[in-house]
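Today's session is about reading a structure prediction critically. Students often jump straight to the picture, but the first step is always the sequence itself: look for stretches that repeat, for charged clusters, for runs of hydrophobic residues. Only then move on to the predicted structure, which in these notes is written as discrete structure tokens rather than atom positions. Here is the chain we will use throughout the hour.
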Amino acid sequence: MNSVPDLFSYRKFWPHKFGSAPILPMSREEMDDLGWDSCDIIIVTGDAYVDHPSFGMAIVGRLLEAQGFRVGILAQPEWRNVDDFRSLGKPNLFFGISAGNMDSMVNHYTSDRRIRSDDAYTPDAQAGKRPDRAVIVYTQRAREAYKGVPVIIGGIEASLRRIAHYDYWSEKVRRSILPDSKADLLLFGNAERAIVEVAHRLAAGEKIGEITNIRGTGYMRRGIPHDCTVIDSTDVESPGQPHREADPYAMQTPCKQKDENRGAAQVIHFDHRPRGLKRENSVVRLPSYDQVLKDDVLYAHASRVFHLETNPGNARALVQQHGQRNLWLNPPPVPLTTREMDTVYELPYTRKPHPAYANARNPAWEMIRFSVSIMRGCFGGCTFCSITEHEGRIIQSRSEDSIIREVESIRDNTPGFSGNISDLGGPTANMYRLQCKDEKIEASCRRLSCVYPDICKNMGTSHKPLTQLYRRARKLPGIKRIFIASGLRYDLAVQDPEYVRELVTHHVGGYLKIAPEHTEEGPLSKMMKPGISSYDRFKEMFERFSREAGKEQYLIPYFISAHPGTTDMDMLNLALWLKKNDFRLDQVQAFLPTPLAIASAMYHTQRNPLKKVTRKSEQITVVSGIKRRKLHKAFLRYHDPENWPLLRDALKKMGRANLIGNGKRHLVPAWQPKGTGKGTQGSSRRPTKHANTKKRTLKPKHRQQQRRQR
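Below is the predicted structure for this chain, in token form.
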């Protein structure tokens, strides 16, 4: 990776003399109290403003403040007019737009496209405080409020929609969010480096249109620079010839357009590729928006090529034509160093919601107010997850001393703290300081996952730094318990039994979340998740160490229904596994195709981007209809009487009517309680002694085994 300046090496902008604000202002009155006549930067966010490092607007705002800039916050502004967008005045440098900690469509709608009744990121969980496609709407209003002010978009919504993508809610392929929003610049991934450099360059007088060489940024342009070599995406991996005669990859005319009178770019195709091309001067041309809109094979191919170009150590720039212009994406940002991470997380956050919210509840903040983020990134590469696309595969960890200082700060300064830290974690609970054993191998690696199909031999799996952190943190005076609430990667944990013992003995509050996601190889292979045998191995360790500690503790496994590659028989087998292991799931997760995820490409195209995509390559079973999605969800809740009529019909059609009955070997009973099973007529006779219809939270029913443990 190219060397980059330290995040805090820039000369501070002149307003640094004002010092740090007690909390970043949300009104002109607060600006007046701080002695500000204007804001240099205004951050617009779809979340309520919580000055806590688990919230994006707080990290970006405090980071820019540390660089000397005056930063104002427009949190959940009224978007139907421009009044709120003018409330802080005209920013001197730019508007920074984010939908918040979640994609606004995911925030608004369930996996069945039903409107959610609440919003955890809004005071009192009130729904409807942000628009659909918030980044686009906010950008439009900012443009209307102050014409000519640069607008920069970022956050997870912009990051996951940075190229042409399938949109589950409209059921179509949408353009990149950059041309749709008409923003000047898009920042993707963890954007600290990019936002700081952009701010300083704008403050130095550069025009926004001249800032085109920062990693982790995207912009629209006409033509390609003359000194850049364009590599056709078929050179990375050929999808085979299309059905129509025209070559969709040729792109000869657009590629040869002159850029600012500097000459024509060189277009390289597979048969004529010279040796020794420099990555820093190369750009991979993806199939255009029009092509992926019309051709599922090209969409799947583009998804695969995109994900092969995500390692900051070897990724090349990407270009994708949208109409008469090109979307240009520079390589991903260089991860933060441990020292930079420490400084970012130790900025002067109040760790509280803005006082303007008074006594209103903020559920998202209440969940994480006593938690500490210890790392970023995930090298698991689960195809349905957005973490890798947004935060990257390289783990970025804070130092142990920095984490301890934050725990002490929570203990000493946070009102309501009772001595319990709710989490030491991040995207996963146990990837802290895990990394490739060789930096050169890491920089050249193009694997989509470091742990699938097996853990890479070059990946370090020692949990000793994490175990040491746990031990040191729980010895702090005033700390009663430290819980681990982040999801555990159990296939990594079993590589270090001492860590599992430490976790189970001291840091489990009765339940531990893990995510096998499924039991069957078909869907697991499309998820890039380990087989159920890894779960069994961890379960044995968990139960053994719980017994040794004299504790009654349970695993809470999470499963996904309707994931691409899942058949009805797969879900039946999972339901039988749940029944065999006496699990009754209270809450279940149905697959939601989020933008940019590999699994979403599977869902849209019925192709498998985990392998080379051709017109004759593997096609995937997709669960798309509402009825089948409901059935797959019902299999996960086989114990719910409301699902029994649906399951009976399905079992009969599948030739498994032998699983209907009132014995232990049956999946669903033949009788139906009164008032259950809408639209059905069933017997109302009492259940047999084997049929337990009581709903309860997931918990094993091994009563005899539990008595022995006691």
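Discussion point for the tutorial: Confidence is low (pLDDT under 50) at residues 242-264, 266-274, 679-710.
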